[in-house]
Q: What sequence folds into this?
């Protein structure tokens, strides 16, 4: 039930992505806010619930884009699964790791979706541009992830202090 | 010896979720495009309010940012912007003045183009000055009758004495005493109108007399102000003489002299010239003014001014059913 709280976050991310991403795009490279939210959920929430939420964001991305459904869902699922598996093996609380993971997540999703669409014959910018654009999206999203992860870190610390105070 | 450890399933729930998710994604990929669009439409509709809110926030943030930028602009930048604003205000003022002037001109032109309801309107008879050869030719062909109205015979004194003969006469609507124009300025008068030709005299030649009025030269943005009336006459001197202007009237060199010959049917006053010399004989009650003609000396194409009945008024009268 507590996971329903992420619905407003999904809604806000979808609104920002559809109405603001083009305004802040550098050339053809725009940050992927949905991928950033999915990476944050995969690293913070983690587990099976985290993976299910990442799949839901993938479905949302699918619905926002034109073309065949399911491709972004699959890409988010695979990238989310990899992120959660890695987060369980490394210390996922370090800012650097989190920022890097967010960038890689966004780049993997962008490349995966682009390559899959070109593989099934949908209009695509070409292999080189897809990969290059995906890497650009990853770098831009990683840059945007820094303040987001800082804010999440402050919230986490504030929550831990409250728990510690409650235990005492 | 050792009990075999119970074997756990290798399939973790996460892999199950992953597999199920990929299967769902594959099923979604098989959806036909119209079904996919039917699924998308409610979501896109639901996003509309949020998108509008984001746009509004973005707009207001842009305005706030612009205001902040403006506030934190350096003094030099501010001075430059103020100078630019001042220059633009000046430019606007100048353009507004030009626009007003242009609108005034347009109104004047519209007024001029409007059919006049005057009874008499000005008409002009184009006339060419006949040279010696031409005069000799028309005299031979019994056409030169300039001055016959005055009792002169063909080839006699009129031709010899008249300074200039033009190729328009009574048949063209020319009458004695009509004003002769060069361009839009008074050149002289018709002395004698014949059937086919007329003799005319310049403003400075003896025999020219006309009722005129003085006017101060127009100041900037102010039209010429009409002054006292007098008689302009030619004396044979290079300047015409203006008489009958009371010595009590303010007169100055450079004042303009307008003919009153076209009064009543000419809309614009006809310029004769300007006062070149001002004299007042001892004890005289009137000024003696000498006027420099405004029309040049060249005997080119002239126009003889005449009054004509306004055709618009005639047409209106003809179309009036009450009169019929």
A:
């Amino acid at each position: 039930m507590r996971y329903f709280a992420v619905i407003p976050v999904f809604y806000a991310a979808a609104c920002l992505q559809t109405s603001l991403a083009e305004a802040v795009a550098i050339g053809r490279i725009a940050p992927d806010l949905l991928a950033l939210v999915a990476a944050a959920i995969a690293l913070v929430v983690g587990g099976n619930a985290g993976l299910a939420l990442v799949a839901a964001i993938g479905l949302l991305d699918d619905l926002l884009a034109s073309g065949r459904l399911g491709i972004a869902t699959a890409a988010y699922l695979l990238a989310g699964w990899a992120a959660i598996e890695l987060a369980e093996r490394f210390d996922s609380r370090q800012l650097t790791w989190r920022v890097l993971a967010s960038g890689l997540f966004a780049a993997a999703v962008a490349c995966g979706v682009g390559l899959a669409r070109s593989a099934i014959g949908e209009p695509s910018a070409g292999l080189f541009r897809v990969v290059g654009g995906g890497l650009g999206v990853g770098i831009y999203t990683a840059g945007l992830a820094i303040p987001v992860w800082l804010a999440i870190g402050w919230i986490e610390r504030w929550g831990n202090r409250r728990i510690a105070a409650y235990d005492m | 010896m050792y009990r075999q450890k119970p074997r756990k399933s290798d399939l973790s729930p996460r892999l199950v979720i992953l597999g199920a998710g990929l299967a769902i994604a594959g099923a979604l990929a098989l959806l036909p495009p119209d079904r996919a669009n039917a699924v998308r439409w409610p979501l896109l509709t639901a996003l509309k309010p949020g998108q509008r809110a984001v746009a509004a926030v973005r707009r207001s943030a842009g305005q706030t940012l612009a205001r902040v930028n403006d506030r934190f602009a350096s003094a030099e930048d501010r001075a430059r912007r103020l100078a630019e604003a001042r220059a633009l205000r000046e430019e606007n003022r100048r353009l507004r003045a030009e626009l007003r002037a242009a609108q005034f001109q347009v109104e004047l032109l519209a007024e001029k183009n409007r059919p006049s309801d005057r009874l008499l309107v000005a008409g002009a008879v184009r006339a060419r000055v006949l040279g010696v050869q031409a005069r000799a030719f028309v005299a031979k062909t019994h056409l030169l009758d300039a001055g016959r109205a005055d009792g002169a015979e063909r080839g006699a004194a009129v031709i010899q004495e008249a300074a200039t003969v033009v190729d328009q006469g009574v048949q063209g609507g020319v009458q004695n005493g009509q004003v002769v124009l060069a361009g839009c300025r008074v050149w002289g008068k018709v002395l004698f109108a014949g059937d086919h030709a007329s003799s005319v005299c310049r403003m400075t030649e003896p025999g020219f007399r006309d009722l005129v009025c003085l006017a101060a030269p127009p100041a900037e943005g102010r039209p010429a102000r009409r002054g006292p009336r007098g008689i302009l006459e030619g004396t044979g001197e290079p300047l015409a003489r203006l008489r009958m202007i009371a010595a009590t009237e303010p007169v100055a060199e450079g004042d303009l002299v307008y003919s009153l010959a076209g009064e009543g049917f000419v809309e614009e006053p006809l310029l004769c010239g300007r006062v070149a010399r001002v004299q007042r004989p001892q004890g005289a009650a009137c000024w003696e003014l000498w006027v420099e003609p405004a029309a040049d000396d060249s005997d080119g194409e002239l126009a003889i001014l005449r009054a004509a009945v306004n055709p618009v008024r005639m047409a209106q009268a003809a179309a009036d059913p009450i009169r019929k």
In short: The interface with chain A takes residues 13-14, 17-18, 21-22, 24-31, 33, 36, 39-40, 43-44, 47, 50-51, 53-55, 58 of chain B (CB under 8 Å). DSSP finds six helices and twelve strands in chain B.
